[in-house]
Amino acid sequence: MSEIIQSVFENQNTAGQIQDKIQPSYPFLVYEKHEDLQRLEEILGQIRQSKTGRQLIDDAEKHQTSICLDDGMRAYGAYDEVENHLKVNAKSDLNRQVGTMAHELRHAQQFQKGIIMDAYLDTPKTYIQNQSVIEADASATATAVCFELALNGNDKPLEALREKDAHIVNPFQNQAVKGGLNDGSAYQAAFKGWFSDYSTRDCYDILYIKMVRQRFKNCTREEEEKKFERVVPVNDIVQKVCLCQGKPYLSEKEADAFFSTQDACSVSFERFNNIFGNCYMKFNFDFSKPQEEVMKEKLGLCSRPHSGYMPAKIVPEPLPIPSVAERQVLAAEKIAAAKKEKTPAQNIIHEAVKRKIVAQK
Question: Which residues make Cβ contacts (< 8 Å) with residue 280, sequence separation at least 6?
């Protein structure tokens, strides 16, 4: 019996030594099961095959963002900017987890830029619009990662994302195949596509109401006096986080025009009434005027019908993604055209040099 026990202990020690030799490729993974580590490595491995994805992972590592799988969550994923912790739904399939993690990694990257958001202190319009910016941008960036994977021959994450968010993926793809990955037009198309889904927007409006109530329970006397006063211009957030190739893909003028539209200043009818109820004492609303007029005057907000009565999401037909062979032909044509344009200039320089040499003689 003692020999059997000794053998068991020896086998356990050996297994422990083997386990210790496994080093995660990302130093801030949180896991208990070896299966979770394997799945996290699979997700990260796929994201790293995208140039945009590699940058997201590198920035998260510099920021020491922890990452885990969570089998108890209802959402696809979440990022907690206070704890700097990212989690992905363990029950999703791998292809959807790739897009989800890219989305949440973008959130981690966004909050590294000093974004300040507080549902209780910010004006309702400020918070709602800025919240929509970070969500639309994260969706556009996740699409960019999945599209780059599709260009490399793995289109499964992109198709999983399209199944859920075709109103974002299709506009992105249509601009990307025209060269929009470099000039930011693909990101801009996906960003605007996010706002065409009123059901999702209403979900975030509901979340805003919940955040206000949660903060109210823990606010200080000073915060109570300053509630709903702080203005964080949406353009400030756009210029900080909505970046492609290091440059904003929405100019200040474009962002101002987009967020000054009635649609971008609207919340669903139900949330409109919630906000009115939260703010009427703070801003001393004039009850002799129509509610819509008062809300527009004091808070810059208007209402829209319930999401069930909203128009269908705008989903254009996607253009085909060019194959590797097609892109090689296109690249060769561009190189040839560039050389042809360069040759006349080189000839002019060559002739000028020859004339100079002759003149010197």
Answer: none
Dihedrals φ, ψ of 94, to 5°?
A: -55, -45
| Domain ranges within the chain, ordered by starting residue | 24-92, 113-301, 323-361
Side-chain-facing half-sphere of 242: CA atoms under 13 Å: 32
Q: Give the helix, strand, coil percentages of the chain, each rounded to 5.
A: 65, 10, 25
Q: Is the pTM for the entire model greater than 0.90?
A: no
Exposure of 86 in the CB half-sphere (CA atoms within 13 A): 25
Say how far residue 223 (Cα) sits from the centre of its chain: 30
Contact call for residues 171 and 134 (beta carbons, < 8 A) = no
The maximal CA–CA distance of the chain, rounded, in angstroms, is: 104
Q: Residue length, the chain?
A: 361
Residue pLDDT, tens place only, 265-278: 999 999 999 999 99
Q: What is the pLDDT of residues 166-187, one digit of tens each?
A: 999 999 999 999 999 989 999 9
The candidate with the shortest Cα–Cα distance to 130, out of 239, 246, 31, is 239
